[in-house]
Amino acid sequence: MCQVIFLRAVNVGGANRCQPAAIAKQLGKFGIINIGAVGTFVVCEDVSESVLRAAIAKKLPFKCEIMICPARDIIKLAAKNPFSQQPAGPNITRFVNILAKRLQGHCDREQIRFGPLSPADESDQLPRQDRETPRRASDNTQLEYDRESCENSPTGSVTTKYGME
Length: 165
What we know:
The protein is α+β, with helices and mostly antiparallel strands. The protein has helices spanning 20-26, 49-59, 71-80, 147-150; strands at 3-7, 32-35, 40-43, 66-70, 111-114, 135-138, 141-144. The chain folds into two domains: 3-80, Alpha-Beta Plaits; 111-150, no CATH class.
């Protein structure tokens, strides 16, 4: 079964620098294929997750979260084409967050609405009066959240997975 490996916050803003292509070459016995410069790999050899995790961690000059998931999950996500009904354009950035763990019981007041940005109507208001002003997640998404309910989340921010249930 093929697996996809994500290294968190690698080669971002000059921090956590490494050479993923060199790591893939050094771990060639596992059949690791490097995808880009940000620490994404594909492995189709029959190797356990724990062995992969340990081997990659040894090659990194810093501590890093290593997330490994079955490639079939990524294929299912892409097949759903979660952005197919959304507008496209040069000012629109689409992204998917891959979480190491499911968020449970956090940010329960988060609201995401697709469509042109506009002030929230009364029916969409959050229950607390001290809520943050709307944040723009992209040109076509409006995100509102209650600071108090989200500041203690494991990620320290509002995180949303699109296209996966």
